[in-house]
Amino acid sequence: MSEHEIIFRDDVTVELIKSSASDNDVVWAARVSTAGENSKDAVGEDASRDVGLINYLARERHGSPFEHTSMTFFISAPIFVFREFMRHRIASYNEESGRYRELSPVFYIPSKERKLVQIGKTGAYEFIDGTPEQYEISVKAIKESCLVAYENYQKMLDAGVAREVARVVLPVTLFSSMYVTMNARALMNFLSLRTAREGSHFPSYPQREIEMVAEKMEEHFAQLMPITYGAFQKSGRIAP
Amino acid sequence: MSEHEIIFRDDVTVELIKSSASDNDVVWAARVSTAGENSKDAVGEDASRDVGLINYLARERHGSPFEHTSMTFFISAPIFVFREFMRHRIASYNEESGRYRELSPVFYIPSKERKLVQIGKTGAYEFIDGTPEQYEISVKAIKESCLVAYENYQKMLDAGVAREVARVVLPVTLFSSMYVTMNARALMNFLSLRTAREGSHFPSYPQREIEMVAEKMEEHFAQLMPITYGAFQKSGRIAP
Amino acid sequence: MSEHEIIFRDDVTVELIKSSASDNDVVWAARVSTAGENSKDAVGEDASRDVGLINYLARERHGSPFEHTSMTFFISAPIFVFREFMRHRIASYNEESGRYRELSPVFYIPSKERKLVQIGKTGAYEFIDGTPEQYEISVKAIKESCLVAYENYQKMLDAGVAREVARVVLPVTLFSSMYVTMNARALMNFLSLRTAREGSHFPSYPQREIEMVAEKMEEHFAQLMPITYGAFQKSGRIAP
Amino acid sequence: MSEHEIIFRDDVTVELIKSSASDNDVVWAARVSTAGENSKDAVGEDASRDVGLINYLARERHGSPFEHTSMTFFISAPIFVFREFMRHRIASYNEESGRYRELSPVFYIPSKERKLVQIGKTGAYEFIDGTPEQYEISVKAIKESCLVAYENYQKMLDAGVAREVARVVLPVTLFSSMYVTMNARALMNFLSLRTAREGSHFPSYPQREIEMVAEKMEEHFAQLMPITYGAFQKSGRIAP
């Protein structure tokens, strides 16, 4: 049996590592089209009087001024979340490697609040609460699988088998960690697709776990760029 | 116990679905810089007399003329391979979804030829043969994990739990399938990083399983664009 | 005076050089998510019974299945059009080079139908007809500038000055030529931004000359992928 | 005659507007592969003891850790420089618009140091000094063209013709201004292609004027990320 302490988590980690992203960045970037060199006068200014401009850019889908920004997040989440995340190509990624290190036994398990049952048809699924029995079955099934998988992982490592081979048994609910860097335009696109929100112009049906990550990223974004965030909301959560 | 027939495979599938990619495409694209409209005369011509031009473009890293090409592959391979593959952002992907369908129990297991033991240090690993015991331990460990995981997957599905929740127990050695479309420049970049080959200008240390996919893609590429492929080889397998 | 025959054109050239793009491509690419390997059965099928699927993908903004397509156009248009065109980054370009060849004296001049006068304010301009005087003034001004510029270009070339230096005098109304390769998703994004059309969900205000290019590309697209094109129209000309 | 003061410049402007880019960023991004969550301990540390790691990453072409950085430049340069610049697609741009503002009469003219004469053949040009006569002819030709063009531009504007039409007469030597945001990996790729430098692994033959821009960007880069810059130099100025 494995001597490693197995951890089951039902949450995800999102930390803002660094950023160079403010509403003001959108303003000078947009102004260069009409003011040329004089747009530099706007660098460092308070953006609060430019709410109208930023709303206009978001509403009319002038997206490029939102790109002169950069946010880097550290994220810990299950592999099945990262699989969806990395389909977003306008971003930079570095992730923990199962080839270069022994992976720790941290696994995702749904919380009691996680809706377990899916109804409706492809493309317009809805999720509803599971019964206590369904929850219990799921937790038991996931725990057993993870324990067996991690035990077999350790057996192979103990036998001298390469990490990259041994890790193939690990389930997609295993936690991994990565840094991702995105600009505000790419982030708005990510949020529009990976959150389900009333009032969105285009409805999205994200898996709950990537939405948990997205929601935490959204909080940071709202704090760093409140006017841009407001414009995103007002324009139906469509990425400009 | 699951009534599904569990399949263990030690190979991968790569099929060329369609392509619009020939050596000639590189020629007219390159010629437009010096010949303008007259470059159209080269469209459809035999590229065999333009070997020198194509070699020059590859050697001097004029990459853009290689982009006016398109190859679509159908690939079946384990999830851990797709995880690495999709880090290549200059490509288009559509993959089988564990949210939208019940996944079949097809799992990757190393062949006897797969080198199981890793020596050397980070960044310059070498792989050597495992012992028969190591192979046996690995096969047993992987099979057991996969069986338990799939059984638990089925238990949750049988209990009415959503596919996207149930699938979290499945290991990264599960097969998935996808279409990927790339141009020749992006493909050469992929090959340069995902194959280990004598004579490469920059050595790469890919995991064997993604290399198995890359090798099959390389064969198709070599057949579709033999002169370009030759130029890639001659220039040390660096993507232009 | 230059011995070269100066040409003034009021139209643009768009030719489809090659393509690998059909409505069917969207179908199998989309099907892989629910059918996995079986999606290959759809390759080569008639897409006419999949109108609903394609409409759904466009409406709900599932964009990736539209990417497994490729269209290459040869375009001749003024430099100021190419300047706008090349801001579209999801595309491959090769253009005639003023460094590598002597540029021909072909210049764009507005036709009599080109609306010359701009009213309204930034972000919502409208264009109305110019007077015959305004047209005459414009034609005269453009022709004179082009003639003087080309004459000075030739003077420098005749004196042995490098092409890349001499060409700096040439105006942005000079014709250039290029190949551009795009997939259907990128092309729909281009069309949504570079055409002004009743019924567009998001209004765009393109310069007329790039719209002339876009309209010709749109015709090819509509012919190659009629069902996708219909879906694009129905969904308010938003790129999925 | 135009009442605007015509300005001829023989230099370019590059200002660093903001940045989030340090050698340390490369370190924690790289470390996540082997250290997972513990890589966060490296955030904010002095990178001077990680010279070996950064050199290794650059030499072996592990490019992704260099992407978690962001530099925004304000650049004023002639249109023919921007035409080349914007072919670099892994970057964000906003530029002054000839549709939205009246463009100022600032034009590029070569300095006396600019080598005017090109020898050798396509793909391996060399440039040598021009004679005083060649310089005089060039300056005269460029000035005359610019004056005539700007005069005609003003004539059309005075007659009420739209800016976007009137500007077509302006030459590519006209100055424009833009913001560009790039990460360090994209910037190294730009520098490798747009500077001619002894000791480069792959020789490049940039036009001198874009090289003037690149050189100024390179100075900022060397100051912000001195260890990364050193690694770039040591590895033959190839972008990792």
CATH class of the domain at 7-109 and 173-234 in chain A: Alpha Beta
Protein chains sharing the most extensive interface: A-B, 52 and 52 residues
Cα distance spanning the termini of chain A: 53 Å
Describe the sheet with the most strands of chain A: 4 strands, antiparallel
In words, what does this structure look like?
The structure is a homotetramer of 240-residue chains. The model of chain A has no long low-confidence stretch (mean pLDDT 96). Chain A is globular, with a radius of gyration of 21 Å. Chain A has a domain at 7-109 and 173-234: Gyrase A, domain 2 (2-Layer Sandwich). In chain A, the strands form three sheets. In chain A, strands 2-3-8-4 form a four-stranded antiparallel beta sheet. In chain A, strands 1-5 form a two-stranded parallel sheet. In chain A, strands 6-7 form a two-stranded antiparallel sheet. Chain A has eight helices and eight strands, in the order E-E-H-H-E-H-E-E-E-E-H-H-E-H-H-H. Chain A has 240 residues and is of the alpha+beta class. Chains in contact: A-B, A-C, A-D, B-C, B-D, C-D. Chain B binds chain C through residues 15, 17-20, 25, 28-30, 32-37, 39-40, 43, 64-65, 67-70, 72, 74, 76, 92-97, 100-101, 104, 176-179, 181, 183, and chain C through 15, 17-20, 25, 28-30, 32-37, 39-40, 43, 64-65, 67-70, 72, 74, 76, 92-97, 100-101, 104, 176-179, 181, 183.
Layout of helices and strands, plus pairs?
Four copies of one chain form a homotetramer.
Chain A: E1 7-9, E2 13-20, H1 23-35, H2 51-59, E3 70-78, H3 79-85, E4 92-95, E5 106-108, E6 117-119, E7 126-128, H4 132-158, H5 163-166, E8 175-182, H6 184-194, H7 208-224, H8 226-234
Parallel strand pairs in A: 1-5
Antiparallel strand pairs in A: 2-3, 3-8, 4-8, 6-7
Helix pairs in contact in A: 2-8, 6-7, 7-8
